[in-house]
Design a protein that fits this description.
With 141 residues, the chain is α/β, with parallel strands linked by helices. The protein has helices spanning 2-27, 76-84, 128-131; strands spanning 32-39, 49-51, 56-63, 69-74, 96-99, 104-110, 120-122, 134-139. It is globular, with a radius of gyration of 23 Å.
Length: 141
């Protein structure tokens, strides 16, 4: 009888260890990709971006211009809100930063598992979007 109890306890211990290992593996943070973006002559040097489902991207944005810019990541609705909006500065939300002249600013953004059409990065200071300061974000499958 004691052997049976010991074997059962060993099996339970192995099963418990496997469950803990599975949860630990599932909870492991995914690797963060760093994307460097330079703003020069009111243009992003990044023309487009491809991401994977659920990917986290750290954007390091350097503004070499003598004027401020912004770098905003989001869907078409969010971009439209900022094109019509009145926010003078950004930085409180992931994927939304103001990049002062001559400075480098970072933001980290985790993309959803699916992207609807219309995702992009952009600058919405007056006239900048119309000048071409935006690029599409698409998802690889």
């Amino acid at each position: 009888m004691k052997r049976r109890g010991g074997a059962a306890a060993a099996i339970l211990a192995v099963a418990a260890a496997m469950v803990v290992l599975a949860f630990t593996a599932a909870a492991s943070p995914r690797e963060v990709r760093t994307v460097h973006v330079t703003i020069h002559f009111s243009r992003f040097d990044l023309s487009s971006l491809q991401v994977t489902p659920g990917e986290t991207v750290r954007f390091v944005v350097t503004n070499t211009d003598p004027i401020d810019h912004e770098f905003l990541v989001g869907d078409a609705e969010m971009q439209q809100i900022h094109e019509e909006g009145t926010e003078a500065a950004h930085g409180a939300r992931p994927g939304e930063i103001t990049v002062p002249a001559g400075e480098t600013v970072e933001t980290t953004f985790t993309f959803p598992d699916q992207l609807a059409p219309g995702w992009e990065f952009a600058c919405h200071l007056p006239g900048h979007y119309a000048y071409g300061m935006h690029g599409p974000i698409t998802m690889t499958t």
